[in-house]
Every structure is written in C-alpha cells, then in structure tokens.
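Fill in residues.
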C-alpha cells in the first residue's frame, strides 16, 4: 500500500511526523513504535529501516489489521513536509525552454546547451528554515523587490549520506520527492553600480534567500512509488491562470546526474533537498510578477498539489 510522509500540526507549538494512507493521516511514531520518528527529519535519518517499517504499517492500515486511528486529511493542518530541512541545493538554468525565455527577456543570444559543451550541472544554495513556507501558508513579499517570480520545481529528498556516488546509483539515495516553489526576486539579482564584469556583481541572497522564498509541499512521496521521476507532468497557476505546463523529461541534467555531481563536491545528508530546476513559463518572460493577493498553485503528477497566497 502506498503512503505519503508529511508533517502535521498538533497544536500551536507542536508538530509531528504523519503518514497519509488513503484519506487519513496517522501519527508515525505511534503507528510504528520507533523511537525518534516523531519528526520527518528523524524518519529520514533512519530511512533504510523506516522505509520498510512505514510500508508495512501502511499495508496493515489498509487491510484493517491495524487498530491505529487516523485523522481525516481534510481536518488535518499540514506544514511543510520538512519544516526545518538540511541544505537546499537549487539547479539553475536546467530546462532548455526556460533558458531560452530568460535569454529573450535579457535580449541575449541563445545560450549553448551546457551538457553538449561537456559542462556539469550548476547549483546555488537557498536558505532553509527561513525560506520554508507550508502549504496554504502566506508568503510575505520582500519590501525591497517589485519583481518576485515563481518557479515550480521537482524536489528530491535525500534519505542517506551520499558522497561520490555514480549516476547509475544516485537515485537510490533519494527517500522521496516533493514540490517546491523557488521564488526569485528578479530585480535584486544585480548590485548596481558594481560593474557586470566584476565577480561581486551578483546578489544571490537578495534574489533567492528572502524569508518565505521556498514554499514546500504538500508531502513526500516515497521514491519507490515514483516509477519515472524523469517523466512527471508539472503545472503552476497564478490566480487560476496556467503559467507553467511542462514535464521533468525536459531537464538538461536529470535528477540522477545532479545528485551524482553534487556528491563530488559535498556529502549530501538525509533531509537535504535538491530543487531540480524550473521549466518555461516564469513571470520574467512575460514581465508579469507577483503582487499581494495573488494565489499560486503548484501541481505535479502523482505528487499532489498545494497553494500559497502572497501578502
């Protein structure tokens, strides 16, 4: 029986790891009896054991052999699946159509395909705890920006330490997949009057790391249940207008290639998130940006959907 791993709010000051089986949420620690499994991060740090335990519990619940009592999903308050994740690694310029639209927006000539040039995946880092926003939560737009943009991204959740792993084995280090919105303050990327040729011209913190810059959710779908991570439909709406409509098959560097490359630079740890890039359809290409009151909805085939309101 399939399940989803999530974090749900118990009270104003307490949240716990939950598992969604059918349309009900069950407390992971109570159902499994495994010490340290009261948080999703605790589950991920023991993923090799917990993956089997959770699937066995889901089977027992679905077959009626478990006495566990769940709470209807409709009555549960979901938080981000990992409210305090590890590192957030974000792939830049990883969909050909997105690269093309950004070239057009900047009046630049077409960027050559980095993969055919023999280059490696390119990532930047986003802040963790301060950036994460729960499904249904409000995102306060940064006062210094008038050009905050949306970016739907398939996100891989690391389930065990990964160092110098091969492309062939890279996906075995993934516990599951979720969705992220890599919000970007486009007008804060550069530092005038610092010359564009200077190595100090770009401001990644202001562009990518403001409070609330990474809505995440709605849950983690175990990797075992995602048969084709490189063939997942992605859609994003702003105020019910479809803006992004693509598929992960359009990535330049796929998820396995990204994990393998990152693991040559740093040891990936349980709870680290790999945001794998965004397709065309962002606001920059249209010169349309988010404003207070806008509602952004993300959806991915087999992974769920969630929304956030801008304030």
């Amino acid at each position: 029986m399939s399940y989803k791993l999530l974090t749900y709010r118990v009270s104003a000051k307490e949240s716990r790891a939950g598992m969604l089986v059918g349309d009900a949420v069950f407390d992971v620690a109570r159902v499994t009896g495994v010490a340290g499994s009261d948080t999703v991060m605790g589950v991920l740090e023991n993923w090799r054991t917990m993956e089997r335990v959770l699937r066995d519990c889901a089977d027992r619940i679905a077959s009626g052999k478990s006495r566990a009592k769940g709470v209807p999903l409709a009555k549960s308050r979901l938080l981000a699946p990992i409210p305090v994740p590890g590192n957030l690694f974000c792939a830049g310029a990883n969909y050909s159509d997105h690269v093309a639209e950004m070239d057009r927006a900047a009046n630049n000539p077409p960027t050559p395909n980095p993969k055919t040039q023999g280059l490696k995946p390119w990532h930047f880092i986003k802040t963790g705890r301060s950036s994460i926003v729960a499904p249904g939560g409000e995102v306060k737009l940064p006062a210094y920006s008038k050009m905050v943009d949306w970016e739907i991204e398939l996100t891989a959740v690391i389930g065990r330490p990964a160092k110098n792993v091969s492309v062939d084995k890279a996906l075995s280090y993934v516990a599951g997949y979720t969705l992220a919105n890599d919000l970007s303050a486009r007008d804060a990327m550069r530092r005038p009057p610092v010359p564009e040729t200077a190595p100090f011209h770009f401001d990644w913190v202001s562009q990518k790391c403001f409070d609330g810059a990474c809505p995440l959710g709605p849950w983690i779908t175990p990797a075992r249940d995602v048969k084709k991570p490189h063939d997942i439909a992605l859609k994003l709406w702003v105020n019910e207008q479809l803006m992004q409509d693509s598929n992960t098959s359009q990535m330049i560097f796929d998820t396995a290639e990204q994990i393998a490359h990152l693991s040559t630079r740093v040891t990936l740890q349980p709870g680290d998130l790999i945001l794998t890039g965004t397709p065309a359809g962002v606001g920059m290409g249209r010169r349309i940006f988010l404003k207070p009151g806008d509602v952004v909805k993300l959806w991915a085939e087999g992974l769920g959907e969630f929304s956030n309101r801008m304030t």
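The domain at 88-310 is CATH 3.90.850.10 (Fumarylacetoacetate hydrolase; domain 2).
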